[in-house]
Queue: 3 jobs
Job 1
Amino acid sequence: MHYLCYSSCKRGVTLILRRIQTMTDYPNLREAIVDQAVAIAERSCWEAVRLFDIAAELKITLDDIRPYFREKEDIIDAWFDRADGSMLKLAKQDDFLALPPRERLHRLVMAWLDALAAHRTVTRQMIGSKLEPGHIHIQIPAIMRISRTVQWMREAAQRDGTFLRRALEETALTTLYLATFTRWMFDESDNAQRTRAFLAQQLQLAEILDQAVYGRARADSNHQPDATSGNKTRLIADTTTSGINDDQSAPATSAGNVAVETRTQPE
């Protein structure tokens, strides 16, 4: 009896010490797991990433991973959460609200993409894995994930449309975001200049359509009409951005090609 008690206590102490060591080695274990998953994918491909490989390289156990990620797909959500965070940090800059609304949206979308730019190929493979046929249990949450990101964009840009106008804004912004994201995944131009020009062009088109439906923007009566007051205006601003290059556009690539890439490891 005493031996059994001693053994149980010893195992408990060993487990506690190991947990403390893990916390010491990785103060933010969740982020360390994401980093390691991306690093493994860069060496092979996202399809080849396994949770037990992540655990082995971090010298932790699968049980250490489980509180943070229920499955590998959750790591993808965490990867895109980082992009959401980078986008929202941009919105905290002092001069952000002084920008025209259209420029705010342009900067927010590009800040989201820039946060992923160092691992563009892996990001493309992550998206491809979600598009594989038969993965309805993955694709439905992915749609909700897109909606959350778009909502954060609207909040960061301080969009205040209501009812039908809000619904139209959300639809338009979701379409622009997805089209730009798709273009960006295959954009090899310097600093994604083609993607930036594409987004600026689409925002300008959206502005024209918005003005045709709703007319010119009206100043918010609760704010002073100066540039630094942070007024909330329509989805489309009354100003235009410069540097739109109509000839710079990357060819669209089908979702099926993306999915195939995730199953092909580099030689």
Job 2
Amino acid sequence: MRTTRNLVAAGTTFVVLALLAACSDDPDPEPDPEPTSTAADDEPAGPTGQTLRSALVRIGDIPPALGTDFESARQAETTGGDDVTDGAPECVDYLDGDYGGDESDRYDFEFRDTTAVTAVYTSIKYFDDDDGDEELPAIRDIFAVCDRFEVTPGDQPIEVTAEITDFADLPGFEDLGDDGLRLQFTLSENGTPTRAMYYHFIEIDGVVAQAGGQIAAGSDPAPFLELVTVAEQKLQDLVDELG
């Protein structure tokens, strides 16, 4: 079963373009995420939602360098493949979530710090049919072709450039997960870069997690290493629990 993902985010994280919007009024500094699951009622029983959500990053896991006033957030307006006004068909496939294996269950959540204009995304995907190892290769294949595209979710076109880097080529990330990659989107308006989105996909034993976020264009992404290291350990703990 396949649903839309978020590419750029005021929303969730496995990838659709979403523009930063107002925070929710949830005052709880350590919320219990209740994101939407993609599990169908007639599918075989797998890990419980509570078990899978244990692998999500929480507010307390976010490095202070990314912000110190995070709150839980709700998804704002999102942009899918229909809003692509310039770009390869593969870019559309990515925004529509039409790639990789079919997950049986997925949870996404987001935190925002409006003071620092930062968002942090966390996701976990579980596959019943050993499709998890298809996810990262499929993303690599897409962005071997889709290195730039333009979306127009409103009146203002947004230019997006995409860059993909394997963890093996990122200092500090080399030993994280069985497979891992960083997907970076740089958003520009009228030729001026405004925001950068970093998505870090980690696969261990066919379960895929993602941790990343949005920062101002040109900002140092170094704090994401600490965030992703925590996400990788949570994923490993989940995999160990699933046996």
Job 3
Amino acid sequence: MNKKQAKQKRVAVAVTVAVIVLLSAVAFLQIFPFWLQFVTSLQPLDFVPQDGKIYWAPVSLNFGNYLEAIEHVDLLRGALNSLIVSVGYTLLSSLVILVVGYVLGKKTFSGKKIVKLCLLITMMAPGELMMVTNYKLVSELGLTNTYAGLILPGIVNVTGIFLVMSFMNGIPDAMLESAEIDGAGEIRKLFKIVLPMCLPVLATYFILTFVAQWNDYLWPMVITSDPDLFTIQLKLTEFSEYYGGFADTVLRAAALIITLVPIIIVYLCCQKQFVEGLSVTGMK
């Protein structure tokens, strides 16, 4: 090995080490706040922290704090409501974007460009701009304080439509034409051929949409006044001063950790498809 090759190898090793250090620092900055919340959630309810001191570990393990947090505001009811809304919205929205993306990506009809343009225009308007209109519509239909009122508005996700539509470019037209020659109708082609090939991008959309719906606070706050329909984000606001002092902070931290569990489970279940979907959509 000559001097030039040895120098290039040292530079490559130095760059690799620098990248690893940088990514490790970024990962630490991302994980550190969650770790502090986890440590706080396990502290005793009668614990009095010192001002300005960071606790890297709890003084004792108190997993009963999680049960206390659940019972304090009926957190399980909020989690069930959030699960119904998040899964219902995500499944319906995934079906809508699959059908619309397939039509816009693989079908030819007059006015197709106008439809795409109109969809693009709607993306320029923030969701909060439609809040009042959506509330009036839901209210006139009598869907306030219902799961339908929480789920139906916004199921036509334009971003998801264009995501699927761009993915359709990778599906050969010859495959769909062959299926049509074999007697397959549009519904059969959609669910037997297109759907299996779109699973990676749909998994990516499922995770992102599920997380967004699970963490949504504004729309459930606007549309619901019945505590039995409060989502988990609304239940978190009910942690008012109950015990007083640091005990309330401990219970809030425990409740926040509990809200992360479904998101982690969904990501672990769809991790492989999620990574594939990001790589494929990135290449598009």
